[in-house]
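A favour between colleagues. Tell me how you read the following sequence-structure pair.

===
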Amino acid sequence: MKRRLLGLLAAVALGAAVAGQAPRPPSSTITLALTGDSIITRKLSVHSEPAFAQLIDLIRAADAAFTNLEVLFHDYEPAPMHESGGTWMRAEPELAKELAWAGFDLVSRANNHAGDYGPEGMRLTSKHVREAGLVEAGVGESLAEAREARFLDTPRGRIALVSVASTFPDHSRAAPARDGVRGRPGLSPLRFTTTYQVTRAQLDSLRATARALGLRAPDGDRVRLFGQTFAVGDAPAVRTEPLKEDVDQIAAVVRGASRLSDLTIVTIHAHEGAPGDRATPAQFLPTFARAMVDAGADVFAGHGPHVVRGIEIYQGKPLIYSLGDFIFQNETLLRMPAEAYGQYGLGPDAGVADFNARRYDNDTRGFPADREIWEGLVAVGTWQDRRLVALRLYPITLGFGQPSARRGRPVLAEGELAQKILKDVADRSKPFGTDIGVSSGVGVVGLKVSGTFSSRDGQQR
């Protein structure tokens, strides 16, 4: 639908030019639909109920739409790696076209499943993604290629996408070429350091324990023990900080991309949360997000924790720390490698359904029993000349409590569930100083625009 409309607009412009009239320049207004994680293993286009059709229409109506592609497309040509990002994610190659059917144009590829089937799985997925007409970013044959921005041209402007991940098995991290050695294929990483802050007495106790075990534990306010860094502080705390080398490299890409586009998206796949609180981003994430805006990003979109997180408005730019899941069909994989079954003590006669039953204890634990996993948001932003003028949040449900063959597909949420999802994002945004109201079942983010406050209907007051 969106592509048909764009073609019609192009035809009108061409007709005007033929008639001797100067065609109107493209509008400076761009709308962008943003979603979270998409693990797609079943067709979308066979469904048509109103709550689903309205959601698809919402995505198609935007000038561009984004999702995080957290599954690989191939026909099992590559062997699985010995380690996965949690589950070895793979789907039928034709499902890439289902995302295009739903209105998506842009997908991020840097996530913890990018390397589940090694470099060949990554390459085959890229092939099928491109053939479906989708623009991808976040993986490549070397670190430089994985880092680079990719671009989508629309009648309303050019959009750049930069994709990175902080959550990944180390084997999937791309590396640069050096001394005649080829670069390693993989994803664009954002690494970070973790420091465990403890009291002086606690550090002395740790040091004494290490020395009793014959480990090296030098004196001072900081010591590395058991593979972790401990430092003296006023009270116990966990401190995380993005690796400067990675931030600088990614910021350089963003600076260049912002000069070559009308809108620049930086997106990250990050499971990491505050200690004991998955709904709050780990400390390094806001630091990184703000650095990306300082480098020229217009929007920061996070995904990965499988739950909704808060929204921050920084320098007038939205930092969306997680929209939760959009498609979550991780239980209907066709096949799984031996390592998947082995970790649960399942024998050679077990299949995917047996794996699910053992992993989730017949839906009584893990993802199936966790209501928030099956809730999410679609964010639709409007920019005028690179200035955010509206940001609306549409609550969605993926069917908590339904059988595994049905759950995982999004529809617009209604009633109490919609109110609950919007309350969650509003409450989680308050620590960032962000006000989110509700109008007709849709969340509306309060924005400061040129020194005034944009009200919840998008008008200045």
Remarks:
- Residues 200-233 form one domain.
- The mean pLDDT is 92.
- The chain is about 25% helix and 30% strand.
